[in-house]
Structures
1.
Amino acid sequence: MITYFDETTENVLKNLEETQKQFWNIARVTGEFLYTLIKTEKSKNVLEIGTSNGYSGIWLGKAVKENGGHLTTIEFYDKRLDIAKENFKICNVDDVITTLKGSALMHLEYLPDDFIIDFAFVDANKSEYVKYFEFIDRHLKKGGIIACDNVLSHEAKCKPFIDAINANPNYENVVISLPAGLSLARKLSNF
């Protein structure tokens, strides 16, 4: 296994990997992929829907910190968000992360007009993916990326989203066969 971070962060990640099924975390290879992609794209304004215990947020947070950016992450459940905040602090990324508690749809609906997204990662209520996409699209810059996890493991629930993004001429989408299936779409234009 390749190590990316300091020993403290790697230990936190390893501990969280042991509770992957309990907290519905992404696989490590997906975290590595997202981290590398955000760094390569030089994404600075990153949005995450579905914080859980902070596993994916650590990967995203480390990438945006190295890029001089910021991560905004949304989680519905108090207990999970409290665990995530502690993990962010231990891993030294809490200074580049804003956590929002509550319904992702509510938070997305009320994002300020000037809230620009370079990269969005979605790993929450699968049946709401298509609604998340509608809100994210308003804020995603041209060339920006929206990545959605579980599109193969929860194919039926994600189908409305996949159909919508594949039918949208402003997006180019591919599904990558990472463990749960990752939809990766780039915004081609702002129209």
2.
Amino acid sequence: MPTEELKDAAAKYLMQTYTRQPISIVRGRGTRVYDLEGREYIDFVGGIAVNVLGHGHPDLVHAIQRQAAQLIHVSNLYYTEPQVQLAKMLVEHSFADRAFFCNSGAEANEAAIKLARRYAHAKYGPERFEVITMTNSFHGRTLATITATGQEKVQKGFEPLMPGFAYAPFNDFGAVEAMVGERTAAIMLEPIQGEGGVHVADREYLAQLRTLCTQRDILLIFDEVQTGMGRTGTLFAYQQLGVEPDIMTLAKGLGGGVPIGACLAKEKVASAFQPGDHASTFGGNPLACAAALAVCRTLLDGGILEHAKRMGDYLAKSLADCKDRQRIVREVRGLGLLQGVEIDTDAKSVVADCLVRGVLINAAGERVLRFVPPLVVTQRDIDKLLDTLTVIFNRRVVEEKAGRH
């Protein structure tokens, strides 16, 4: 179906919940994707931080093919080997003792919120239920997770919101400490706010939150849906930020493109869930878990984490150099291969200009460009991105000068 026909059919048959770029992507290989007309693009979106192994990685493809031929789904009424193996791998390479599997980041965060409330209810009673999250955060699109999300634009039109959430400024420990009370069950945050514009949590701030939570028996929840699975150069972001949470959520990169989410927790917290307290029909099915196992093994054994760390450093330095040369760039921030560039112009128009030049990027807000490429991205790919941005930024400056005369 030609792209224009596809767009017309989408407009007719799909709910209009997305603003899509005017291309139809039909295949991918490594860091490249190709549209219906055969044009090539370097992918710095990566399915929004999902395709950590790139497109068509043979280890992932073969794992999916093998499992699909053997067993796709049987439900959680029975044991399956891929699910238990994946739980074991995640536990052995993290702070956690147990895992719960679901289908998405929003579901993982729902599980974390329910687990925190269940733990607090069992230990302290029903009056201890509040979760403090951060302004400018993003935790998902379900009713509970948009309430947890500290952005009014995401919540607007869906009121009344769920009770039991409060918001503190990000990286402001004093504000959080002042809000903690007898009703506080958990503090929930992203180590790096991705959708909120790529803001990194300060190490001291996280350490202070950890101490406060330990002293008050409040659960510390890290939403690593976007930062997990090697994005920052270690398997999980908390591993280089010096603080362990009590609960951590994963999704996005976990399945390398196959939908799967996970809620990991320490034993004292995980034991609050008993049979019947939470469930997911498709969560942790054999196909998704086989894919996630392939991703984990490839990240841990294939040298990709080390490569991602090097490329993250190179991307950060390249963007910082760009800032030094370009007046239009206000700030560069991020960690590893999750980088944001705040610019003095409309971000979506820059995204469109990059698309025309064969580079896929993403906007996180009106003035922030976000870069979350596959972890197999190369120095050559990054150089192409920077060359493209340089051309676009220089052109903007010329246009602004011409407009003033």
3.
Amino acid sequence: MYATELVEALADDLGVTPAEVVVGNGSVAVLAHVLQTVVEPGDEVVYPWRSFEAYPIAVAVAGGTSVQVPLQTGAGLGRLDLPALAAAVTERTRVVMVCTPNNPTGPVVHRDELDAFLAAIPSDVLVVLDEAYLEFVRDPEAPDGLAVYARHPNVVLLRTFSKAYGLAGLRVGYAVARPRLAAGVRAVSTPFGVSHVAQRAALASLGARDELLARVEHLVADRTRLVTGLRDQGWEIPETQANFVWFDLGERTVQRAEEARAAGAVVRPFAGEGLRVSVGEPEATDLFLRVSATWR
């Protein structure tokens, strides 16, 4: 019911106790269970926006009130504004979400700014570090989530097997939290929420770390090639540390997405805001660079 073997393997891999790990039906479900555990009707949940599209849905289902804080613009395009997130915390705030790398824009928060942010957050406010794209991060200034968790009792880590591990369709995510909170999250979780097949696949993936990291390294290299090609074309894009790049296209977003699809490149449009373009096969990178060149 509680994916005990997988929980124990994860705990061993992360250097924490099994009592600190909760597995669920993808990180979206785990987030929903975390919010259900700590949020009462009318409580506020502060998060960056644009960020992961499930945040407002999960907050609403938990009965909370969303407080959306705009991302940086200009030189910090697509980055979280941590001082503004901290300033948005009130006595009604129960949770603050920090998505790093941020989905769908790509930048990570840095150690020094995260330390300053956490110092400004009351100890009774939960800070959820959503690290769904952790394995793709190469920024030397990015924080070590486990070290941050170890120093701050109010921090929860949210991770997934959906991205780098390639198990999105099988739905396996997990949280790392203090035992008392983890027990509460476990209590509200869907019984048998992670299928036996998904548990076996996740265990197999943990045992194939070298192969996983080799695949990720190839993808990171192609991400660099895509970003370099786009900047050579004159695009200003955020400093991505995920497996995608972000185009701030505003009202042109839907039209550009249709043009990309017509050319054979599948992209993710956020109407009126921008496009998220995932990095996949090298041939797809070549194709998209040809498409983006026509937009200049």
4.
Amino acid sequence: MRVFDCHSHWATKKAHIWRTEAELARQESIWKTKGRHYAEHEMMDYMRQYNVRVILDLAFVKQLPIEEIRGYHDYTYKVARENRDVIFGHWLQFDPRRRDESLNEFRRSLDADGGFVGFGISGQGVGVPASDPMWFPFYELAIESKTPVMIMTGLTGIGQGTPGGYGLVLDDGHPRHVDIAAARYPELRILAARPAYPWQDELIAVLLHKANVSCELHGWGPRQLAPDLKREISRRMQDRVMIGCDFPVLEYPKIISDWKSLGYTEEVLEKIMYRNAEAYFMGKVAA
């Protein structure tokens, strides 16, 4: 079975989600997978081995000077052009307080021939929840460019297990902020990211109420999802839920195996693994 992974990260030394040796070490202690750097070809071959096409979240660059952000983007677009069978595109993250330079860089990225690009919004990461008016120009550009926006929800692994959690406020990722953005911009396609722990019932309510919201469930093994969410995935949400692995923090063999172990029908599994994402991002129903 092929996999359309809606959310993972770069694992190369240049663009790895964890920027220090200490953070790499924390991966093993918290998520029980080994933190390491992959060469570019090694990372691509690893994904080919599991028949994966992926959208990568380049999260850490948002606090850098704009010239450095462009450099990282250009690096990822070059590798993407050379591996189009693996890299479908990228979620780009910005600080909304740097509005003009961020919007200009997104417009430049739309023309970079590096695959799909969409805004990835981490209210926790920048201390500005997705309902804040500072994000409105970003939503309006997403509508103009016909690109979906990914909005992070629930517990984040950034800062997890540290005193003060790097200063991040978890409530900035509450699903209420997705609901407010979706209500204000009904033309905006929103992909709620992560299962929104501990607010999974609130996420289900937003999905049921707002037809312009779908979700991808990266960052958590499927066995850890709340019972109500597991049940809805096989019922009302089966056309709205997509897989995100969160590689290299989590790894494909276990994530794929765990999804297959939950007792869903082959039809529902195919929707989660690739059909829903291909329809969402590519406008096609997979054969």
